[in-house]
Amino acid sequence: xxxxxxxxxxxxxxxxxxIAEILALPGSxxxxxxxxxxxxxxxxGGQVFDTGWIAPSGGSGEATRCAVIDVADREDGAVLxxxxxxxxxxxxMRVLGKVDAARRLDHIQQHSGQHVLSAAFIRLFDAPTVSxxxxxxxxxIDLDTRExxxxxxxxxxxxxxxxxxxxLPVGIRYVTQEEAxxxxxxxxxxxxxxxxxxxxxxxxxxTACGGTHVRNTGQIGxxxxxxxxxxxxxxxxxxxxxxxxxxxxxxxxxxLSEAAELCSAHLWDLPxxxxxxxxxxxxxxxSQERLLEELxxxxxxxxxxxxxxxxxxxxxxGLFLDRDQAFIRLLAQKCTxxxxxxxxxxxxxxxxxxxxxxxxxxxxxxxxxxMKEVLARLGGRGGGSKDLAQGGTESEALEAELAEIGRKxxxxx
Length: 413
Fold this sequence. Notes:
Helix 1 (101-125) packs across helix 2 (150-165) and helix 5 (270-306) crosses helix 6. The protein has a 6-stranded antiparallel beta barrel with strand order 2-3-7-6-5-8. It has helices at residues 101-125, 150-165, 177-180, 242-262, 270-306, 325-336, 367-378, 398-411; strands at residues 3-4, 14-25, 30-35, 37-38, 52-56, 66-73, 79-83, 94-99, 129-134, 139-143, 170-176, 195-201, 205-208, 223-231, 234-241, 309-310, 313-320, 342-348, 354-359, 380-384, 388-393. It is α+β, with helices and mostly antiparallel strands.
């Protein structure tokens, strides 16, 4: 079992220890170094691992360092320090270890901020945290509640930041499972451990946790709530703390400022401006749809009037290089509706080449089967019903193909 130095001092970044074991990790070319004691935190409890390096004692120059790229727990309590190469390391060797201080401090701020935020939701809305996840850019907690209003989120964020401003002391204590049950913990840990490590925020929160934490709440810096989403029977809340919150707020402000400048609007007027743009776009879209409907109707009447006729039917064919599949589908429908004597064989050239075959109800052909037959020759995929089918192809011989099919359909009895 590895002695975990971070349990008693989350701000311990350098330490010495001895190599207990070195394991080769199959299939990766990497190794896992087990030390008798470590300040490196392994991924657990929602918090991600530390990085840094280990090197033989007295040889901490860059040439002798082995970069620690992952840290994990083993079932027997050992901590695995994953390194790209363990060259220069050996069992029993004394080593110096150094944790990436900036990464550790970021994790300290996020994890301690989560404790404050989870306690705030308990106090205000009796919404306990059921899970916590720390990502590279943001963190999330899942709250045992069906919904949270914007006002509730604002209240919890405000309370959490008030606790930070009070700079309350954060302490560590160890108790037995039986003692923990009498202390009013925010979350009762599962039974199994003889000794529990508790993180106590003075007069605000007490919970069992093995993570790294601040000494005073002021070290969290601040908490910024980002967004929520419904996940099964819980609400997932995204948040950031400390320097992450500052960086995120700066990035958000820059993005909003750029968007406001592009819209020639003041930053605070941007939502109203965007709503107006959406309304204008919706109006323009409806107007465009009406115009396309009218255009398709006029064009359909012209095409049907000019189409060759034989055996009681007219066959309309055409390749429209500047129209997309949606338009030629509409055009085909306009050609074949309101009559029992038209077959339309149309193709579009705007974007991926597309085919639409349609016939008036009562015509004897099967457009779906015809589409599959044509695409089997041209290459592509598609199909449809007896009266309407569509498909896509990369063939460039569409116009000639449509003309040939049209002649056959005109000749059919």
